[in-house]
Design brief:
The chain has helices spanning about 1-30, 55-70, 85-95, 105-115, 135-150, 150-155, 155-160, 235-240, 290-300; strands at about 75-80, 120-130, 170-175, 180-190, 190-195, 200, 205-215, 215-225, 250-260, 265, 270-275, 275-280, 285-290, 300-310, 315-325, 335. The protein has about 350 residues and is α+β, with helices and mostly antiparallel strands. The strands form three sheets. Strands 8, 9, 10, 11, 14, 15 and 16 form a seven-stranded mixed sheet that branches. Strands 5, 6, 7, 12 and 13 form a five-stranded antiparallel sheet that branches.
């Protein structure tokens, strides 16, 4: 009798599973898989998030400019580029803290994808409080630590970024919930008024740069930086080296050379790309060149065009613009519209 009851129970369970299987399968398919964008299921168990108001952004800008003014540095204005807010939202949603994101992108790559055409340097900070977040106090604490308590953790990288006199704008990102706040400052050098829809790249990797420089500045060089293909990263990977520390450009692999007044300008220690057009008249410039040679050498990955500027008031050059071109396994070049 006991055996019959056991067999009957098993039979009923099989019938139930068969009947419910389509619904179970549908429910499972709605969840992200383990390798989908490197996300974990626990990332979705987040408290409600809150969007910063214009007043909150204005307060953060005031904190930044107060620090700059205290050291004799001119104000920055708020940029309409959304790179900082996008990154703050991503870190809060998926629960990580890194200059890289879950797609494996660095700040200058994300900056290109959201329409940035200047140069960007990023600060990130966060605070967790189990008893609740006071937004203005937390922003003040992070900003103060950036400027006055930065040597031990970060070799004053955050401080130097805030006080850099070459920055003209800042993209501000603030994302928070009941217990956690992320604060992102993307400082921007904006010295070029870009023309004719440039920077731009064709599918065949021909790059065009055309614009007007701010008075008193000139182009000192145009170089190409290579990063290996981006890949999805888990939150566990983002918590480990090298993703839990500062970031830098990838490998500088080439520079744009040109001929002028019978002289040939080339790079001794880099691959020289011969420009098809290299025209600079007063503060207007038009530069065109191809990346196909570098792509043949290095293959798929990210090729960032770095425009170095110099000015009469600054002895050394500085980055005036970055533009990241993505190259797939077929050698085709493109720039996605957003991340």
């Amino acid at each position: 009798m006991g055996l019959i009851n056991s067999l009957l129970t098993i039979f009923i369970l099989i019938i139930v599973v068969v009947l419910l299987y389509p619904y179970i399968l549908q429910a499972l398919s709605s969840l992200p898989s383990a390798n989908q964008s490197g996300l974990q299921l626990t990332n979705y168990a987040q408290p409600p998030t809150y969007a910063p108001s214009n007043a909150t952004v204005a307060y953060a800008l005031q904190l930044i400019n107060n620090d700059r003014n205290a050291f004799g540095v001119a104000n920055v204005t708020v940029s309409n580029i959304t790179s900082a807010q996008q990154h703050a939202d991503s870190m809060l949603r998926y629960g990580y803290f890194s200059h890289w994101d879950i797609y494996g992108m660095k700040p200058y790559m994300r900056y290109t994808l959201v329409g940035g055409r200047g140069a960007v340097d990023e600060n990130i900070g966060y605070v967790y409080r189990s008893n609740g977040i006071n937004v203005t106090q937390t922003l003040q604490q992070i900003e103060h630590n950036f400027v006055y308590n930065d040597a031990k953790c970060c070799n004053n990288g955050h401080r130097d970024n805030i006080l850099d006199p070459m920055h003209t704008q800042v993209s501000i990102g603030i994302a928070y919930n009941a217990t956690t706040l992320y604060f992102v400052e993307d400082f921007i050098n904006n010295y070029i008024n870009w023309q004719s829809g440039t920077p731009a790249v064709t599918q065949n990797a021909d790059v065009s740069l055309s614009g007007v420089l701010a008075p008193g500045y000139n182009i000192s060089s145009v170089e190409i930086v290579y990063d290996t293909p981006v890949r999805n990263l888990t939150t566990a990977q983002l918590a480990r080296s090298p993703y839990n520390s500062s970031y830098s450009f990838g490998q500088t692999v080439g520079g744009v050379g040109y001929s002028q007044n019978g002289r040939v300008f080339y790079y001794q220690n880099l691959t020289t790309i011969n420009a098809t057009v290299y025209s600079i008249q007063a503060n207007r410039f038009d530069i065109r060149f191809g990346l196909s040679g570098l792509i043949h050498t290095y293959g798929a990955g990210e090729y960032t065009v770095v425009v170095w500027l110099a000015g009469s008031s600054k002895s050394s050059s500085f980055v005036g613009s970055t533009y990241t071109v993505f190259v797939n396994g077929n050698g085709q070049a493109y720039v996605p519209s957003s991340v």
